[in-house]
Each structure stands twice: as C-alpha cells, then as structure tokens.
Amino acid sequence: MGNIKGKHLYTVMSLGLLAALLYLSDVNSIAATLKRVSPSYIAWGIGLWAAGVYMRIFRWDYLLKAAGVRVTLKDVAYVFLVGFYLANATPGRIGDPVRSLLLKRHNNVPVSASLPSIVVERAVDMLVLVVLGALTLLFLPAGRTNAYIQSALLLFVVSIAAMAYAVSSRKRFASFISLSARLLSKIPFVRLPRQRIISKTDTLFKAFQRYKNKTHLLVSLLLSFLIWVTVGLISGVAFLAVGTNVPLIPLIGITSISILVGVLSFLPGGLGSTEISSVLLFVTLGFATLPQASAAVLLARIMSYWVYVAVGSIAATKIR
C-alpha cells in the first residue's frame, strides 16, 4: 500500500508542476503556437531522437561487450527500450538496473555481469551533462540563480568522484554496495534484489575493473557527448518550430541543466521539474517569451521523452 501511495504522490506532483506551467504560460497561447508548427520540424525532431536511440543502444552494447557479455544487438535494443521506459517510472531513474533483470530473464546474463555497464553508463552521462551544463554559467549573470546552478553541478561532481573512489578499492566498494542497496530499498515502489546484489559484491567489483581501460572510457564519453548534444539539438528544432532561434551553446547548456534538475527533483522521468527549469532559464536569459519557451520545451519533450515512453510501452507489452 505504501508503495502505491508513493507512486501516486510522485505522479500528482509531476502533473501539478506541468499544470502550473501551462497556467502561468497561458495554455491558449501555447496551443495556438503548437498548432502552427510545421510537420517537417517534428520529422526532424523524431529523426534526431532515432539517432540518439541508436547511439544509446550502441553504447550499451559496447559496454556489455567490454564486460564480456555477448548478446545480439536486437536483444540489447529490445531490453534497452523496455528498461528505459520502466526506469522513467521511478524517481531519479533509479530503476535503471531493471535492464539487468530483463537481460537475465531473456538472455540468462547474470545481473552481476551487466549491472556495472549501466552504472558506468549513468556516471559518464552525469559527467558529460555537468560539463555541458556548465556552459550555461557563461550566459548567467552573477546572482542567486547562478549560485544554485553551481551548487547543483558541484553536487553531481562530488557524487561521481565518490563513486569512482568507492570502485577503486574492494573494501570501499563492498561498503558502497551495502549502503546503496539499503538506501534504495527504502524508496517507494523500488524493489531490487538487495541481498542478492550484496552477495555478488566480489563479482561486481571484478566486473567494474574491466572499465578501467582508457579506450572504453573515452569511447563511452564520446558517445555520451554526442547523445546529449543530440538531445540539445532536438530542443533547438523545437524552438525553430515555434519561431525562435536559440544559439547552440546556451541551448545545449540549458537543456543539460534542466535534465540534471529533473534527476535531482526525484520525480519520475523528471516530469514537471525538467520542463519548468528549462523554461525559466530560456526566459531569464531572454531567448524567448514565456509562451514561446513553454511551447518549445513541451514540444521538445514530446519528441524525446514521450516518444521513448510510447515506443517503450509498446515493447513492454511483449514481455513474457
């Protein structure tokens, strides 16, 4: 019962934030703006989304192979899409490990063999988003907003550094796994095989050591950079669709910051918090009016987040 209440609470909070954004931005103006959007822009946005999906699937396949896991690209794609969809139903996307459970179920791959690839993937993503998000600081005047963003970026940097420090020692890694499993078990509607994961600490530690290879890390960083630049470009297409041209660097920086805010908010898929933070930054920096920014951000989320949800939900119906 507690898990269900927690899930509903997060959903209500997300919907409340979206409703507030629509109300403050004038829903009629947003609707009128979106009606004028040319289908060609939507086609470009979906095309960029597809390119981003391919890079994400290729990256995970690459990381799995680096850990000695051999699965067909078709199976990797299927598990990724379903897992991405299910992970976005959890706060802060902490449900990402569900991909390892699906891979175990469909391809008999041990969770301890595939889980490190997902952790590395997330850590590299956070690092790239922090770097790209820092670009926003170049356009923000000194003040409270700038300080908040700096604090958020610093928090992610410290988290990534702490994770790297924990993985560098078997003893520290064991403590890190035990603490993480205990914390995750307390989050509403997140059910992970806690004791099983703890019992596989040594196997997980050995699997993580495979990613010390510089080539693996550099390739992962490059792919993550391309993936998040692509997400930023989708936002750029959305702004062009509503008649506003935002310079590339602040466009990618603001998009990255809003994604990090969505993670920090702990709302499923960052729904509501991602949109509001993005709109506030675009408007504050003078790149668009409130109705324009709201329409563009909502369109960008449709062409990225909601397409993932649609495709992932369809794939999830085929789970046996």
What does this structure look like?
The chain is mainly α. The protein has one domain (2-7, 51-316). The protein has 14 helices and no strands. Helix 6 (111-134) crosses helix 10 (201-209), helix 12 runs antiparallel to helix 13 (273-284) and helix 13 runs antiparallel to helix 14. The mean pLDDT is 82.
What's the gist of this structure?
The chain has 320 residues and is mostly helical. It has helices spanning 2-25, 27-35, 39-66, 73-87, 98-107, 111-134, 144-167, 170-184, 194-199, 201-209, 214-241, 248-265, 273-284, 290-316.
> What would you call the structural class?
mainly alpha
Q: How would you sum up the global shape?
A: globular
Percent of residues in helices comes to: over 70%
Q: What is the number of helical segments per DSSP (H or I, 4+ residues)?
A: 14
> What is the gyration radius calculated from CA atoms?
20 Å
Average pLDDT over all residues: 82
Stretches with pLDDT under 50, minimum 5 residues: none
Strand content: under 5%
H/E topology pattern = HHHHHHHHHHHHHH
Number of strands: 0
Summarize the biggest pleated sheet: none
Number of domains: 1
N→C terminal distance: 26 Å
